[in-house]
Amino acid sequence: MARTRRRTIGLVAGAAVAVLAVAIAGGLWFFFRDDAPEQASIEAAGKTLGQGSGDAARADGTWTVDPTVGKFADFSNTWAGYRFNEQLSKIGAVTAVGRTPGVTGTMTVDGGKVTDVALDVDLTKLKSDKAFRDKALHHRGLESDKYPMATFKLSGPVAIPAPGSSGRVSTTIDGTLTAHGVTKDVKVAVDARMVNGRIAVVGRAPVQMSAFNIKPPTGYAVLSIKDAGMFEFQIFFTKT
């Protein structure tokens, strides 16, 4: 009788442990699930500006980053950020995406060419879906408290291709990206569209943390981070 009771207690305890393990695993999945936002697209950026088109012949002049378009809550605004793959303990691979609305700068167009682009990005305002990740980047990895700004500068004039039927312009530009105190040449794939007196530009460039002397921040939850990732942005310009 006592043996049967002990066996019953053991089975109940084992079942309780199993249920607890499933609950914990489910909680971890909910906390660390991969719900990274999609990459920016010129179609989505164009919708933010509404219906209409622009006159490319009137593009000449200086254009300034416009922070009044869209909202950071749904990333319909101007932002720049990173996209890297992480390996999390007991969870597996997820995509880490952080974005900052702190983008300022100008773009100059002259005679069908983009002749200058100069952008400053405030890394201290980077936000992702994980507060512990954002906090860590202030003193590890990007070390944004020590290196608060990243900059991008166009290396030379770029001819503006003829827009497609949707008004979309696509090209690749050469520039220099400075982050973590290091400057590197980068090739940026960009899409642009002029709508209602504004220009929307989205772009992405492959980057490696090691090239910028950045040591990937890891911890109890983050086992590893891929060295190769993406610098990406969505920027709205208004002519000044």
In whole angstroms, the N-to-C terminal distance is 89 Å
Q: What does the oligomeric state look like here?
A: single chain
Number of helices: 3
| CATH class division of the largest domain | Mainly Beta
Note the overall shape. globular
Order of helices and strands: HHEEEEEHEEEEEEE
Radius of gyration: 23 Å
Features:
single chain; 240 residues; alpha+beta; Lipocalin; 2 domains; eight-stranded antiparallel β-barrel; 3 helices
Characterize the structure shown:
This protein is of the alpha+beta class and 240 residues long. It folds into two domains: 1-32; 36-239, Lipocalin (Beta Barrel), CATH 2.40.128.110. Helices cover 19% and strands 42% of the residues. The protein contains three helices and twelve strands; from the N terminus they run ααβββββαβββββββ. It has helices at residues 2-32, 42-49, 131-136, and strands at residues 61-65, 79-88, 92-100, 103-110, 113-122, 149-154, 158-159, 169-179, 182-195, 198-208, 222-225, 228-239. Strands 1-4-5-6-8-9-10-12 form an eight-stranded antiparallel beta barrel.
How would you concisely characterize the structure shown here?
This protein has helices at about 1-30, 40-50, 130-135, and strands spanning about 60-65, 80-90, 90-100, 105-110, 115-120, 150-155, 160, 170-180, 180-195, 200-210, 220-225, 230-240. By secondary structure, the chain is α+β, with helices and mostly antiparallel strands.
